[in-house]
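Schema walkthrough. Field components (list of strings):
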Amino acid sequence: MAVATTLDREQIASAKEESQRSVIWRRFRKHKLAVVGLGIIGTLTLLSLTAQLWTPYDPTVPGFNSGVQAFANPGYSNPSNGDIYIMGTDNIGRDVLSRLAYGGQISLSVGLLCTLLVAIIGTIVGAISGFFGGFVDTVLMRIVDLVLSLPFLPMLLALSIVLGPGYWTIVIILTAFGWPGTSRLVRGSVLSLRNLDFVEATRALGASNTRIITRHLLPNSLAPIIVDATLNVGGFIVAESSVSFLGFGISEPASSWGNILAGLEDVARQAPLQLIWPGLLIFLTVLSINFIGDALRDALDPRLKL
Amino acid sequence: MQNTNDSATSMKPDLANDGAAGSVKADPTSGGAGASNDDLLRVEGLKTYFYTEDGIVKAVDGIDFSLKRGEVLGIAGESGCGKSVTSLTIMRLISQPGKIVAGHIWFDGKDLATATEDEMTKIRGNRISMIFQQPTSCLNPVFKVGDQIVEVLKVHKRMSDRAAKDRAVELLTMVGIPSAKKRYDSYPHEMSGGMCQRVMIAMGLANEPELLIADEPTTALDVTIQAQILELMKALKKDINTAIILITHDLGVMAEMAERMVIMYAGKVVEQTDTNSLFESPKHPYTQGLLASIPVLGQVRDRLEVIPGTVPSLRNLPPGCRFAARCPRQMPICVDEEPDLLKVHGRSVRCWLYHPAIDPDPTACADQTLDKLNTYRQTQQEPPAAAAK
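Field assembly_structure (string):
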C-alpha cells in the first residue's frame, strides 16, 4: 500500500477516483484466469456485436442446398460457386458460423440483461426485507417462497406459450424466476450486517435508513451479490439455450446458441462433432464469467490482502 | 413539524405538575440559581423500558440530569446500570423492544423524546454526536476512513467534494493523525484501535456539534493510548466548546475529565454532584463503595475492595432502595421504600441516610422509622419545595 507521497500531495482530490480504479484493476489482474476470461468474453461480445460486418452468409437463409442433403461438414467448399463453410452448416444448410455470431447477440444479451435485472430486483427486495424485518420481511419472503416453489421448467414453457415466444418473453420469464434466490442471499447478508456496531455508529452520525442501506449495507454485501450474479449469467445463458432448444424460446429463423444446438441435433448422427460449436461457446462464456466474478469479488474487497 | 412544536410547548406545564406530584421532589438542576435556561441538555424523568418476552426490563428508570454548554458531565456506574441505554436514549437510537415510556429530553428547547425520526436524523451527527466503545468495529470496513468523514460532512452540509475532502484532512490532522493526507486513503482495518478512535472522534466532531456523547471511548484502548485520547478530547472540547457526556465505569478517567458527575445504579441516579466534592466526600454508600474499590498507588493491600453482590435484575427490581441488598449501611426502611433524590449540601443523593426525618441508626425499628417518615411527610405537605434543605 506504499503510495508515493509526493504524488499523493500533488493530487489529493482529483486523482483519487482514478487511483481507486487502478487499485481494483491491479488486484483484478492478479487472477490470471480472470484476465483470460475477460479476453474471451470481450472477443465473443465484439464478434457478436459486429456480426453484421464480418459473417460470410446470411444466418437465416439456407445458402447451401444441394438437393437431398442440406447438411455440410465443417470446411465444406461448395463446388458450384466456391462458397466455403468453415464450421459447416446446420440441418437445413445455414452457415453455422454466421448463426453462432448472430446467436451470440441474443444469448449474451439475454444472459447479461437477465442477470442485471435479477441483481437489481433481488437486491432491492432482499435489502428491504432484511433491513426492516418484521411484517415487511414476512410478506416479501413468503412471495419469494411462492416463486421458488413453482416448478421452473413447466412454468417456463407454459408462460412462453401464454406470452408468445420471443426475446422479451425469455427475459421476463428468466428474471421472474431468478430474483428470489438473489433476494434471499442479499437479505441474509443485510441481516447479518444490520446489527453491527458501525451501522449504529453511522446512524448516530445522522445517516437515514436509505443511506445506511445504500451506502453502508449494500457495499458490504457486494461480494456475495457479485458471485451470485456471475453464476447467474451462466445459468441464464444455459436456461435460454434449454428453452430455445425445446423450441419455446427464441424462435426460428432468428438464432440463439440454444436453438442452433437444437438445429444441429438433427445432424448429430452424421456429424456429432457439429454439436460442439454452440456447446463450446456456452461453456467458454459461462466459465469466463465465473472467473471474472471471482476476481471481481476479490478486487473489490479492500479487506482482502492480495 | 407543527405538531411536535406545539406539543413541546404544551408539555412544559404538564411536566411541572408531574414533578411536584411524582417522585421527582427536588429537581437537581432548577434548584440552583433559578431555573437556568442556559442548559444545553436537560433530561427529566426519563424512563426507557425494554419489553422483552421475559418481562419488562427497566434499563433507565426515571433519571434527571442537566448539562450546560461546554460542560463535561460524567456518568458512571457498574455494567448494566443503564449508562449506555441513557446515551442511546438521548440519541433516540433505542430499537425494537425498547421504548421511551416517560420523560423529556430537552435539547436546546426541543424535546428529543417526541421528535420525529427526520428531525433526529438532522440532529444526529450535526448537533449531537456520539462516539462508541469499539472504534474498530464502528467504522465501515469497506470504505476509506477519509471518505467516511466526508460522508458525515456531506450528510449535514452542502459542500463541494473538494471542500469536504480538505475539511476531512484538516479534521484528521486535528485529531492528531500523522500524515493525514495519506491516512485519508486508509481503510479501518489498516489502522490501530487508537487511530480508529481518533477517526471516530474526527467524525463525531466534523460538524462541530454542541454535544458529544462518548460512550466508554477509551475502554477498548490500552492505557497510554487512553491518556492520549482523553487529552485529545479535552483539547478539542476547549477548541470548539462542545459539551461532553462521558460515560465510563472508570472513575480515574472521570476524575480527569468531568466537571460534574452522575452516579447511576440499576437505572437510577443515586448521586449527582461536582467531581471534586464527589471524590472528597462521596455520600451514597454505592459511590463510597465504588471509590473504595479503586486501588491506590503505593498503598499495599492484600485484596482489592469490592462491593459484594451484583446489580439486581432490571426485570425484577426490589421495592425498596435498589442498592439495599448490597449496602453496608442498610436500614430497615431501605428494604421497604425507595428513597427520593435528596438535596444534601448542594448535591443530590438517593439515600435514606440523608433524609432529615430518618435517624441513620441501623438498629432502629422499621415501624418506628416509617411513622417518623409519615409524620415528616405530613408536615412537609404544605410547602412541597421545602424538602430540599
